[in-house]
Every structure is written in C-alpha cells, then in structure tokens.
Write a structure and sequence with these properties.
The complex is a heterodimer of chains A (about 300) and B (about 525).
Chain A: H1 2-6, H2 25-31, H3 33-50, H4 52-55, H5 87-122, H6 124-138, H7 142-153, H8 157-184, H9 187-194, H10 199-235, H11 247-255, H12 263-290, H13 292-295
Chain B: H1 3-17, E1 24-29, H2 44-53, E2 58-60, E3 67-69, E4 72-77, E5 83-88, H3 102-113, E6 130-135, E7 138-142, H4 150-153, H5 164-170, E8 185-191, E9 195-200, E10 221-226, H6 230-238, E11 244-245, H7 253-258, E12 262-265, E13 272-278, H8 288-296, H9 300-306, E14 312-314, H10 339-348, E15 352-353, E16 359-361, E17 364-365, E18 367-373, H11 378-391, E19 395-401, H12 406-410, E20 417-423, H13 427-435, H14 451-461, H15 466-482, E21 486-492, E22 496-499
Parallel strand pairs in B: 1-10, 1-11, 18-19, 18-20
Antiparallel strand pairs in B: 2-3, 4-5, 5-7, 6-7, 8-9, 9-10, 11-22, 12-22, 13-20, 13-21, 14-21, 15-16, 16-17
The chains are: A mainly alpha (about 300), B alpha+beta (about 525).
Chain lengths: ~300, ~525
C-alpha cells in the first residue's frame, strides 16, 4: 500500500512551475500605478477603520443639537450631521462597519459558494440538485433577500450580513463549479482516482487548490459589489440601526437635508464610491496577476 | 447666491411661468389612503378626503372645542346624559341625488356597530349604543351610560354618513371603486398611490357654520396628488404644481416661507404629541425615579429647534394647554431639563455610574430597548434621546420598524420604550385611549393598570356637566404625570403651506386634517 501512495502523481500547482521565476504577486500588482494607488488608499481606510478609537477626532455618538448641520471646516473638518455629530468621526467608524460587511460577505459567501461549486463539479449526481438550488437563489435579488430577512429577524447588521452571504453564495458556486469542471478534465485527477486516492484528498489537494486562485480573483471583484449592496440595504433602513455609524445609513440620514446641508449625504456617498472604486481597481489588478487564463 | 437658493429660484421661475388650472385645487400628500371607507380605518389620509366628500352629524370649529351643527341642525341631550336626539336637515342630498334621511344615519351607525365591520374607532361611539329613526328627520342615539365625549367624537371622519344603497351596491369595493356622500365634493376617481379626484357638488348648501361659505365649494375640482419624496414635495409646491400641502417636512418650512408665492398657516392648537412611553412592567423602567430621571435628562427646546426647526412646542405635559379639559395645575416637572437632578435620581434608585460611562445595578447595565417608526422624525428624535441619555449613563438601543409592521411589534411585550406621535381631540380623548386598563396591551402599552385612574376616567366619560368632567380628567392628568408614564417631548406643530393664489386660507386641525372642508378657499 505504501508503494501506491509513493507513486501518487504530483499535483501541479496553479500557474505552473514557471511562476517561481517571476516577481512576487504583490510586486507585480504594485507595478500597476493605478492599482498601487488604490491599494494605498484602501490601506489607509482600513487602518483608520481598525484604529478608529484613536484616529477619530470626536466621539461619533456624541450629539450636539446646538451645532447641527455645520458645514465642513473649522472645528469639524467634514462638518456635523443633523444631530450635531462629527461627520469625520462617524465616517471613520462607519467605514469599519461597511468594510466588515464586505469582508464577512466575501469570506462566508465565498466559503459556502466555493464548497457547493466544487462538490457539484466533483459529484455528478449532486450537480443537478446543487445547481438548481443555485438557480433558485439567483432568482432573488440581494435587496429582496435583505428586505425579507429584515422583515423576519428585524433590521440590523446581522440581517444585512445574512442577506449578503446568501446573495454571494450562488455567484461563487457557479464560478467555482466552472473552474472545478475544467480541473476535473485533467489527467492527474483520473490518475489520482486510479491510484485510490480518497475523495477528500482529491477534492482538497487536487481540485480546490487548483481552483482557489479563480475563486479568489472573483471574490476580490465581488468585494466592491457586496459593499455597495450592503450600503444600499442600510440606506433603505434594513441595516445598521441608529446610532451605529454605517456609510449607507449615513447617506440615507442626509437625504432629508439635501437642499440645506448637502454635505451630510454626499460625504458618506463619496466614501462608498472611493472604497468600491479602490476595491474594484485592486480586484482587476489581482485578476491580471493571478488568473491563469490571462497569463497564458 | 447659494446653490440652494439658486435651485429654488429656478424651480419657482418655472412655476410662475406655468399656467395653473384656476378652478382646480391641487393638494399634495405624502402617502395614500388604504381606501376611503371611513369606518374601517384610522388612516388620516382617508379622513382628509372624507371630510370633503362627506359630512358628519356635527362639525368641529377652529378652536377644536366647539361643536357646530352640520347634517344635524340641532340636538337635545336627556337629563341622564344617555340619549341624544338629533334633528336632521331636510334639504340635504347625496352626490347620487338620493335624499338624505334619518335612515341613512341609522344605517351608518349600525354599520359601525356591526362586528363584521371591525370598526377600529368603535370605542369612540359610546357604551351600549342603539340608534333609531323617530321620523325622516329625527334620530335618537341611546347609550347605556352617559358619554361626555360623544359630540366631539361624532365630528370625526369615521362618523361620516354613508348612503346605504351605495354601500350595498359596491360591497367590499365601497371606498375603493366609489362612494356616495353628502360633502361639498363628490368622489370621481382614485388611482392608488398616484391621485384622487373629486368634483364639486353643485347642490351643496348645507356647510357647517364653521365656514362663511355654506356652499357650493368655490373650486370645481379637487385633486390629491401623492408625492412621497420630501424634496420632490418641496419642488412641487415651489413650482406651483401643487396648491396646498400639510405634509411638508419641517426643515423646508423656513425656505418656503421666504418664497414670494408661498404662505404658511398654522392651526389655533396643535393637538398632536410626540412622546416616549415606558412599559412599566419591564424591570429597568418600573421605578418612577428612573422614568422621571429619563424625562428630565432631555432638553426639549433643543429638539424643537434642531429637529423640528422650530415647528413645535417643547412639551411639559402630555396634554396641550389649549385642549379641552387640560388641567393648568398638572405637574410640569417632567418637562424641565435638569441632567444633574436626573443623575441624582438614578443614584437614589440604585443605578451607579460604572467605569465605562454607563450605570449598573446588581451587575446589570441600565440598557433600554426602544421601538419606533423607521421614517420621518422618529429616528432623529430617538437618536437625540439616545445622545442625552448617554450623558447620564443610560444605554438606549434603538430598533426602528417599517410602518407596515411597527404596530404589530408595538403590540408585543419585548421592548422597554417606544416612540410615537398621536392626534387627539380633547384631554379625555387622549387619556381614555392610552391610560384606561381596558386598553391594555395596546394602546395602553405602559400596562398601566390602576383602579383609581380607571375610576376617574369613567367619571369623566360619564359626566353630565363640564365641571365634573374637568375635575375627573384633571385627576387623571395628576396621576399619570406623577407616575411619569411618558416622556412628553413636543407638541408637534403642523403647517399648512399654500400658494398665494388660493384665497381665504385658514388652517383647521380636525384629527390631523388641516384643510377639513375648505369651503372658504377660493381661487
């Protein structure tokens, strides 16, 4: 038996051995100046959000009804909102929640979607069932899922997270299945099966590791969309509840004062725009570097 | 010139250039009604239209206290206060042309009393009612006990007299596909969530003496247009596409008042309170000292200035001073702003400040959950309260619900506080609705079960003279304020915005409708 294991075929690494001679992934991304700028900006936002307690100039929840809707400048760099709270401080705390929405959506949606897609590709008998389930999920827009979850469980960040994960799963499952089916046609899978390699090893070492870069590239591109959907749900009142700062909700709160104090709505909206743009530019760059098809 | 002013001037210029339909009165509203059958809903949007397409036996004057004749030209009350005999006008007809008689009144009230109708306002009709037609123009309204609020309640839109033939012909579609009333305008069409149109009732000459013009109305048509977006409502009014609205957000009123084609009218009294209520059976708010501390930790004037933009009055009491049976000696301690005293009261109640800035008692944090409406001013006020209470170490969690589900959530026992505003017609009307134990769990969401309060309310409701009624309701006001059952915040101001082309405008406030019948309005 030991000889069988010793004779197991080598599993080719995604991208091939020629990758070893090339510069690191990070260095290749940074060669793209636009992507480098996006990465830098996103890093600043992430660091500020992570260390919000130290970076934010004011308590984001401290109201001051004597100083509502103050324009940007002076004591409050980005002005105050309709309850007299410092917009910059709320923006920093809000970015934390917004980024968390995107990250959790990507991680959990990616995990469950990836598992479903790879299982569908590996076990032909499950393929039809899983893909029909995916079709059903695809039939419901993320906003509708969010509204339904919020109606059942109540509005809040948890409801939005559930909606984002559920909305991400079918897209990832389709991509993962597509990538996995391509790998399944490779000879080393056939060889592994012939040598009696277990299903778990085949799925993890032979299949998943060869699909993971495709899934990762897709998720980096999906990150921006998830943030946008999460912000939209918060804008509709389904997400973060007051006084929690979240960029979509901050934009919604400013909507009522567009004529009088446009900065209350436009500043968080601009922040969403910048985060999504940076995420998309970075995702494009990662795809250019990691996607094996583009490299060929 | 600021961008804001420039954009408004552009909109205004467009409006001045646009020819307006001189004989059409266009009213702008934020939401549509579920239907126009007044006995089956509490919707103010339904009432807004029914006041014009129908009439009630009696009408309410601008002071919101004086009851005037309408379809009933006079009435008598029996010495024991249980029987009202209404003498009806003999010159009234429905829009369909059918003559109005006592049978229509009997049919209307029997329909309200019919359990299948599920009339939400039934409690406003009095106890143990029977209504009979003595002759074609005489109606006898009998109750099992005196009910001092009856006449005031009969001015409400739920008592709009309907035509039996029309109701029976339309069945469940009554108030949807059509209706027949005796009002100054006749229902013509309804496009849900878009517009409703009514045309002048040319035969109308029985308007209540609330108005100088008894009929017919001076406009040929009334069109109610639904404009949900706040900024769009502002633009619609500024451009002259709308003639009147009373659903303009507070923040736009100062701007509108500066426009040359706009004028703002305010009713004599604003009988609409925004308050925060306590569920007294929940442990964290069961102590009156905690409830009082929370009430006095809020600076109401700042809320009026910053959130209402001055369109309201900081509330010291639950009842507006101009409401019927308001007790001027009501304790006013709940309305003052004294955060230091609030802190002292919380200390006294055993809630000590922790190192994290919040108060604790027996290891439990003073954390409260508040339910409220997701739209309008409600979230802003709740956030303001949240900010004020953080200063005294109270953690307020907010859960704002969409209007479609908020009332079902408010009917539960899972929260500590709630926020809401409500219109009322008198002290007795508000007190009976919210503080009588018979109305638990809703609208008596406080779970206030006090036999003394109930007895005083019953005395007031069955009083045969004004002085007795006043004394009884004054006692209730003392009890509910001393027990700090609510945090009174703002007597909400309502503003009727109108285009200057509309003449003789005066704001009413009957159950939140600022236009009422609008009989004096003229192009």
């Amino acid at each position: 038996m030991s000889t069988t294991m010793d004779a197991a075929p080598a599993v080719p690494a995604a991208g091939g051995s020629s990758e070893m001679a090339r510069p690191s992934v990070m260095r290749r991304i940074m060669r793209d100046k636009v992507a480098g700028g996006a990465a830098l900006l996103l890093t600043i936002v992430v660091v500020a959000a992570l260390f919000a307690e130290w970076v934010a100039p004011y308590d984001p929840y401290a109201i001051n009804l004597l100083n509502v809707m103050a324009p940007p400048g002076g004591e409050h760099l980005l002005g105050t909102d309709s309850n007299g709270r410092d917009i910059l401080s709320r923006l920093i705390y809000g970015a934390r929640n917004t980024l968390m929405l995107g990250l959790v959506g990507v991680i959990f949606g990616g995990f469950f979607g990836g598992v479903l897609g790879i299982l569908a590709a590996f076990y032909k008998r499950l393929d039809g069932w899983i893909m029909r389930l995916v079709d059903v999920l695809l039939a419901f827009p993320a906003i509708l899922i969010g509204l339904s979850v919020a109606a059942i469980a109540g509005a809040g960040l948890t409801s939005v997270l559930i909606a984002l994960v559920v909305a991400t799963v079918p897209d990832v499952a389709r991509v993962a299945r597509g990538a996995a089916i391509g790998v399944m046609e490779q000879e080393f899978i056939e060889a592994g099966r012939a040598l009696g390699v277990s299903d778990f090893t085949l799925i993890w070492r032979y299949l998943t590791l060869n699909c993971i870069s495709t899934i990762f590239v897709f998720l980096t591109l999906r990150f921006g969309q998830i943030i946008l959907i999460g912000s939209a749900l918060s804008f509709l009142g389904m997400g973060a509840q007051p006084p929690t700062a979240e960029l979509g909700m901050m934009a919604a709160q400013g909507r009522d004062f567009l004529f009088m104090a446009p900065h209350i709505a436009t500043i968080p909206s601009l922040a969403i725009f910048v985060i999504v743009l940076c995420a998309n530019l970075l995702g494009d760059a990662i795809r250019d570097v990691l996607d094996p098809r583009l490299q060929q | 010139m600021t961008l804001r002013r420039l954009s408004l001037m552009c909109v205004l210029a467009t409006g001045l250039a646009a020819p307006a339909g001189a004989q059409t009165l266009t009213l702008i509203r934020n939401i549509d009604a579920p239907h126009y059958d007044g006995v089956r809903t509490t919707s103010g949007a339904t009432g807004e239209i029914l006041f014009k397409t129908g009439d009630t036996l009696v009408a309410l004057d601008y002071d919101l206290k004086t009851v005037r004749p309408s379809l009933a030209s006079s009435w008598e009350v029996s010495p024991d206060g249980t029987t009202y005999t209404f003498k009806l006008r003999d010159d009234v007809s429905f829009c369909s042309g059918k003559k109005f008689t006592a049978d229509d009144v009997v049919y209307t009230f029997e329909r309200v009393l019919n359990k299948e109708t599920r009339a939400p306002f039934i409690w406003r009709m009095g106890p143990g009612i029977s209504v009979t037609a003595k002759d074609a123009t005489t109606v006898e309204y009998k109750m099992s006990a005196p009910f001092s609020e009856l006449l005031l309640n009969l001015t409400n839109f739920h008592s709009t007299i309907v035509n039996k033939d029309s109701v029976e012909a339309l069945g469940k579609d009554y108030g949807v596909k059509g209706m027949d009333g005796t009002g100054p305008y006749c229902f013509q069409s309804w496009e849900p969530r878009n517009q409703t149109i009514a045309t002048r009732n040319e035969a109308y000459k029985w308007g209540p003496p609330v108005y100088e013009n008894r009929g017919p109305a001076k406009f040929q048509r009334v069109v109610w247009k639904i404009v949900p977006e706040e900024a769009a409502r502002l633009a619609t009014m500024a451009s002259g596409q709308g003639d009147m609205t009373y659903t303009m957000p507070d923040q736009y009123l100062p701007q509108l008042s500066r426009l040359p084609n706009m004028q703002i009218h305010r009713p004599e009294a604003n009988l609409q309170l925004f308050y925060l209520g306590f569920k007294t059976t929940r442990p964290n708010v069961s102590d009156v000292r905690v409830r009082t501390a929370l009430s006095i930790a809020i600076n109401r004037q700042q809320i009026v200035d910053a959130i209402y933009f001055g369109n309201g009055i900081a509330a010291e009491t639950f009842i507006h001073p101009k409401a019927q049976d308001y007790n001027p000696d009501t304790p006013k301690h709940l309305g003052r702003y004294d955060p230091a005293e609030a802190g002292r009261l919380l200390d006294e109640a055993g809630w000590r400040m922790g190192t994290d800035g919040f108060r604790y008692k027996d290891g439990q944090k003073l954390s409260l959950l508040l339910y409220g409406f997701a739209g309008g001013r409600s979230p802003k006020i709740a956030e303001a309260a949240q900010g004020f209470w953080r200063r005294i170490g109270v953690d307020l969690q907010l859960q704002m619900w969409d209007g479609t589900i908020v009332f079902s959530k408010l009917a539960t026992q899972e929260y500590d506080m709630w926020s809401i505003s409500f219109p009322y017609s008198s002290a007795g009307d508000a007190l009976r609705l919210y503080f009588h134990s018979a109305n638990m769990p809703a609208p008596n969401r406080m779970n206030w079960n006090d036999p003394i309060t109930d007895a005083a309310l019953n005395r007031g409701l069955s009083a045969l003279d004004d002085a007795t009624r006043f004394r009884a309701f004054a006692e209730v006001q003392d009890i509910v304020h001393n027990n700090a059952l609510w945090v009174p915040l703002v007597h909400q101001g309502l503003a009727l915005v109108s285009n200057k082309r509309i003449k003789n405008v005066r704001a009413h406030h009957v159950y939140g409708s600022l236009i009422y019948k609008g009989l004096d309005y003229a192009p």
